[in-house]
Amino acid sequence: MRKFKSIDPSSAATFGSELRRAREERRETLVNISKRTGIHFGQLSRFEAGDFKVVSANLQKYANFLRIPSPEADDNVIAQFQRYAARSPQHHAACKLIVEALEKLG
Predict the structure, then answer these.
(1) Helix, strand, coil proportions of the chain in percent (round to 5)?
(2) C-alpha span between 55 and 68 (Å, rounded)
(3) Furthest-apart CA pair in the chain: how many Å?
(4) In whole angstroms, how far apart are CA 31 and each of 18, 28, 60, 69, 76?
(5) Which of 45, 80, 82, 86 is 20 to 30 Å apart from 92, CA to CA?
(6) Virtual CA dihedral for 46, 1, 3, 21, nearest 10 degrees?
(7) 10 and 55 share one domain
(8) How far from 76 is each of 55, 57, 72, 90, CA to CA, in Å?
(9) 3-state class (DSSP) for residue 56
(10) Nearest to 68 by CA among 10, 97, 26
(11) How many other CB atoms sit within 10 Å of the CB of residue 72?
(12) pLDDT tens digits for 46-80?
């Protein structure tokens, strides 16, 4: 039996919002993505609502379809930083300030 990484409710809600934002930016519908990925649109909707407790194969598949690093990559600080930078122009600007501050540290 395959084990999946657990995810806390707050992180699930945040990641679900990222999924929805990415889908809406691409002007995709849940039904269309369901047809293209083979994942039931109801499950896609639950993912976007943050209604999941583990990073399942279907969640990873959906994240890959939208080209978003899945929470499975959260152990990787670089992937986590990239996810934050991609959230919005404000997040990107904040990440840029962090990088500039780190560069000043030497």
Answers:
(1) 70, 0, 25
(2) 13
(3) 50
(4) 18, 8, 18, 22, 32
(5) 45
(6) -30
(7) yes
(8) 15, 19, 9, 22
(9) coil
(10) 26
(11) 17
(12) 999 999 999 999 999 999 999 887 776 555 677 77
101 and 58 within one domain: no
Which residues lie across from 6 on neighbouring strands?
A: 54
Distance CA 49, CA 55 (A): 14
Three-state SS sequence of 16-46 = HHHHHHHHHHCCCCHHHHHHHHCCCHHHHHH
The answer to whether the beta carbons of residues 58 and 70 sit under 8 Å apart is no
Give the angle subtended at the CA of 81 by the CAs of 93 and 16, to the nearest 5°: 100
Tokens of 52: 């999941």
Q: Are residues 51 and 26 in the same domain?
A: yes
CATH number where 29 lies: 1.10.260.40
Q: Which two tokens stand for residue 61?
A: 């598949």
Distance, CA of 57 to CA of 54 (rounded, Å): 9
